[in-house]
Design a protein that fits this description.
The chain is mostly helical. It has three helices and no strands. The protein is rod-shaped.
Length: 90
């Protein structure tokens, strides 16, 4: 059930899940920042089609960043609740 690596239940509780959830959050945030950077580059290009795509890239970037932040709050809250349920006062 638990991966005992350090002997401390706070660090060992769902350690693999925590690593995967953190990796997903980092990927969402980095991809969002990349989209925002691409939108800035598209604005600097003089091609009208490229400039028309800039708002789409910016919105996609903002949505990815928002998703990354929301996912971070969600998985940490869920992990804390599960830990308290299992190791809380009995």
């Amino acid at each position: 059930m638990h991966e005992q690596q350090t002997g401390n239940p706070v660090f060992d509780f769902r350690a693999a899940h925590r690593q995967r959830a953190n990796a997903l959050q980092n990927a969402l945030l980095k991809l969002g920042l990349l989209h925002c950077a691409v939108s800035i580059v598209l604005l600097l290009i003089t091609n009208a089609k490229a400039q028309a795509l800039a708002p789409v890239a910016a919105i996609a970037g903002a949505l990815l960043i928002f998703s990354g932040v929301a996912w971070g709050f969600y998985w940490r809250k869920k992990l804390r609740a599960d830990f308290r349920r299992e190791f809380g006062p009995k």
